[in-house]
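Researcher: Please generate the 3D structure of the following complex. Treat every line as part of one assembly.
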Amino acid sequence: MAELLLEFEAPEALARAARELQRKGYTGLDAYTPYSTDEVRDALPERSSWIPYLVLTAGLCGAGGAYLLQWYLVAYLYPLDLGGRPPHMPLAFVPITFEMGVLCASFAAFFGVLWAGRLVRPWHPVFEAEGFESTSVDKFWLSVPASDVPEGRQALERVVDSLGAERRLYVASEVRR
Amino acid sequence: MTVADPLLFRTSDAELHEKIAGITWRPRGWGYRAVLLFALCGTLWLAFCVSYTVARGIGLWGNQIPVAWAFGIINFVWWIGIGHAGTFISAILYLFEQPWRAAINRFSEAMTLFAVLQAALFPLLHLGRPWFGYWLFPYPSTMQVWPQVKSALPWDAAAVSTYGTVSLLFWYLGLLPDLAAVRDSAPQRWRRRVYGLFALGWRGDERTWAHYRKAYLLLAGLATPLVLSVHSIVSSDFAIGLTPGWHSLIFPPYFVAGAIYSGFAMVLTLLIPVRKAFGLEKLVTVRHLENCAKMLLTTGLMVSYGYLVEYFLAWYSNDPTESYQFFVARPTGPNAIFWYFMLLGNVLVPHLFWSKRLRTNIWLLFALSLLINLGMWSERFVIIVLSLQREFMVSQWGNYSPTWVDLSILFGTMCFFLLLFLLFLRFVPFTAASELKELRRELEHQARHRPRPHALPGEGGAHG
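Model: Done. Output below.
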């Protein structure tokens, strides 16, 4: 499989092209953009992110774990009687519980993005494309899965002709895990 | 509030990119090198003083009973407070959708990171035996002794290390698109390689952006209570103690307000010379500086209110030691000069910002920001040293004076901070280019959708 990359000047043009292609039945579109825009987001199929669930779970686990650990240390393993204060004192456990919850949730958010975006890979097929560097500066690229059959490609090319892309390039598809 | 700066409209994305990312590959002049050399020398001096302290012990410092906490804690609280404005700008103003933050958020977040780094040095050295620092962590030792988590000091360790880590993650996540932009456009191959490694293979595909937007928002949401909690927890180091001058419920909010106050002052101290030196007057406008001055006015008034409540409580408690501390020891006791610096910097100076003419006078702002930094440092000196000098029993009273090692380490951390900051300015795109491009686009959109006789059809006008 290959992918066809189309370069556009502005997100509105990309959004129009994406809608047109989807109307013609092409699926699996993706966009590469220098910044996130509403136009591009709305034109592509809705993507829900599982990051919030991950962050919530990690935060709760971090906070719960920290509370249990504190209880285990000062109420169970090494209880000290200081001025008759109870060994298990929830109020005194609040700060560390909160901090560890935030810490774990933040790690989840950061590494969640790296995992979800399949990052931490210095090489990717799209980096081979000539001129694709503009994607992080000021150009908007749409990627369309292109069939390997010549007829399929010709059909796609005909649709693309009317979309007004500045440049078109074929690259190898990413091997999805 | 929108910063509908027409200058932002007139630059295209490519020009904006060249302006911001280009800083990382354009050679720097002699001025930069001279300041860098100065900062490097100061940092080496810091390294020497730290080694000397570790080798000989903290007897080299001026700390002496009754003032067992002095420069170590003053500088810790001061540096950590400075960091707060960075998180405030990057997280809280993001949640409140204040678009003007985009031009200065990366810069202020870096200030946070480097300030936290300086802060972390002091408690570590103050341990006296820093090589036992790992005792703060609960690890199974043969002695079967565990950290006492009901004490405020482990809270502090948890709060500060979490704060530093979360600030780093938030900063780095925001940096990814811009590092990728440098990777894609730097003129030299080796630069592309190095930035390519740090960009972690960022491609900016919509699938990643969808997760990124959520994660960035969540990190902002997590950092918001975090920034309020950190200085609250730092203040409990004092508020939980019985020492007159410390034992007060006003401490957490008053410390947080003071932290944000000192942080905004530091933002101005750094921003004003940098925008001049790098020619960024069009991106970081007078409006930005004025907004910072308004924040100084607001938080300065909160700090003044905190002082007022402290004095009221000292009088109202009818406790002779409290009254003595606030009404005699602070204005007239040893080292009282810092009390006057504190009032000058934190109570009088903010009132100048009522005037728009003074708020927009850039070099005056710079001078006042230095005065505020001094005022906030003095506040911590007053809280820590002046309180400890005059505790309950007259036989316990004493005086404090710092040694040259104390002063050198304070000066050294400033140089180290400056060094890190200069390197950051050199190697990292220090304005969030991707966010500014997005902001520019949104402002254009707003402008276009306002009722005007000739609304532009399509996207044609975007680059006009």
